Amino acid sequence: MRGMHRSISLLVAVGLLMAMLVVSASVPATTTAQEPKYTFYFVSHIGPADPNMKWLTQSIEDASKLFPVKVNYVAPEQFSVEQQVNMLQTAIAAKPDGLIVPITDPAALDAPLREAINAGIPVIASNIADPRPAPEKIPYLTYVGGDEYKTGVQMAERILKEFEPNMPKRVACGIGHVGHVGAEMRCQGLIDTLQPKGVTVEKVALTEEPAKIADTWRSYLQANPDTEAIWIVTMLATPYVYNVTKELGLTDKVKIATVDESPMSVEGILRGYVIATHSQQFYLQGYLPVVWLYIYKEYGYVPPPEEIIGPVIIDKSTAADWKTRLVNLFGEQTYNELAGWSQ
Question: What's the CATH architecture for 148-279+314-339?
Answer without folding.
Answer: 3-Layer(aba) Sandwich (3.40)
